[in-house]
Amino acid sequence: MQTKRYEVLSINEGMARIKDDLGPNAIILSSKRLKGKKRSFVEMIAARDDYCGSIPNLSSKKDKKSESAILNSDEAFLPFRTEIDQLKALIMDTRKKADIHSELTELRETLNTLFDILGVQKNENISSHLSKFYYHLISIGISRQRAFQLIEELKNNYSQEILEDYRNLLEVAEGIIKRSIAAFYKNVSKKRVISFVGPAGSGKTTTLAKLAAQYLFSDRLDIGILTTDTYRIGATEQLKIYADIMGLPLQLISKKEEFKESLDAFGEKDIILIDTPGKTYKDENYLMKLKELFAIDSPIETNLILNITANQENMIETAERFGIINYDNIIFTKLDEANNFGSIYNIIDYAGKPVFYITNGQNVPQDLEKVDPGKLARLIVKNTMVNIDSQS
Ligand SMILES: Nc1nc2c(ncn2[C@@H]2O[C@H](COP(=O)(O)OP(=O)(O)O)[C@@H](O)[C@H]2O)c(=O)[nH]1
Ligand SMILES: [Mg+2]
Questions:
Q1: Each residue of 344-373: pLDDT tens digit?
Q2: Beta carbons of 239 and 208 less than 8 angstroms apart
Q3: Which residue of 44, 105, 309, 373 pairs with 181 in a disulfide if CB–CB is 3.0 to 4.6 A?
Q4: Global confidence as pTM
């Protein structure tokens, strides 16, 4: 980027000179009024963005010859234009934003990684496969940070022969994601009392009914159902219908004593499933009450139900707020309504919790899928539910 300083009498005069001098894409970096001896004038600093001129300095690779061959090709830069534009926008915004430092650092790292990708330039195939894969990851909703980590791991730990073939590259990426997800499945112990918590409408009751049917019909287990969802008029109706159809006993609980009594009453049951209210998770009081209610002698396995069609910040905030009740697993719902599954990876990685089930439709009991790290990794890399059962 080339910068130049101008002293002019007015902003308008400055704009005209800058445009003449640096062309229509010039950026004004700053302007301030200065007092001169006779009259005041305006100091303006402007810049012209010469991508191709500045990039070789940023690249960490030494091979200038092959580098410039690629860097001079417009095609090689096309995919990175958005990144560069975002960095520009951020720089321009610096004066307005106080908390800009971390975002700038992240973007600088992004650019470094991108230029590094270009820097693997001894082999153009590898570079174009890595950049294609990077953009695939971003486009399906994987955070830039995680996308970098994956690219870095591929670049640093796998041979040219593997990275040269895009199918092989996808396969090893799947393996990397699988291993990183699998780390969260250690020390998991299944419990007898299983609760379902999460935002209103995320699919708690429906998912509970699907699981009840599976435990009942496939595993031939004896099931009891409890619900604390007694707040809303008609809230228990939906659950009651499911319980009646499956011939399962349902008890309503609103106090801790009733909870203990119900657990005693279901003492012989193999599995006890607990539904909770569809109240807003932003109500701290509600979460504290739930925590209080669940603080009993019997260990409870808690599933946080997250609707994958919700926006990602929302899901992260939910995962954070529900941390107060120390949930054990996450169940993602409504995959049938989602186009991108990258956020599954972001959230598992953020929350550090395993996922044993996902749901993909309103039909009870069939729209429930048991998953493991391998299936999730396939779902994430391929961004489709189709064939997640078959190894690639
Ligand atoms: N498309 C789709 N809809 C679902 C899924 N799971 C639940 N739903 C629907 O989401 C709505 C809210 O579900 P519900 O179980 O009542 O949510 P709760 O408030 O968390 O108990 C209902 O209309 C369900 O049929 C799913 O996997 N896919
Ligand atoms: Mg419900």
A1: 999 999 999 999 999 999 999 999 999 999
A2: yes
A3: 373
A4: 0.73
Closest CA to 70 of 58, 84, 55, 85: 55
Same domain, residue pair 109 and 251: no
Q: Which amino acid is at 142?
A: I
Determine whether the shortest distance from the Cβ of 200 to ligand 1 is under 6 A: yes
Q: Which positions ≥6 away from 241 have C-beta within 8 Å?
A: none
Same domain for 30 and 115: no
Tens of pLDDT, residue by residue over 2-22, are: 678 888 888 778 888 888 888
d(Cα 216, Cα 211) in Å, to the nearest integer? 8
Ligand nearest to the CA of 230: 2
Task: Say yes or no: CB of residue 333 within 6 Å of ligand 1.
Answer: yes
Q: Is the CB of 110 under 6 A from ligand 1?
A: no
220 and 320 co-located in one domain: yes
> Cβ(276) to ligand 1 under 6 A?
no
208 touches 273 (CB < 8 A): yes
Q: What is the pLDDT of residues 190-219, one digit of tens each?
A: 899 999 999 999 999 999 999 999 999 999
- Spatial CB neighbours of 142, under 8 Å, sequence gap ≥ 6: 150, 342, 343, 345, 346, 380
- Please tell me the distance between residue 362's alpha carbon and the centre of ligand 2 in angstroms: 13
Inside any domain, residue 392: no
- Range(s) of the domain holding residue 275: 189-382
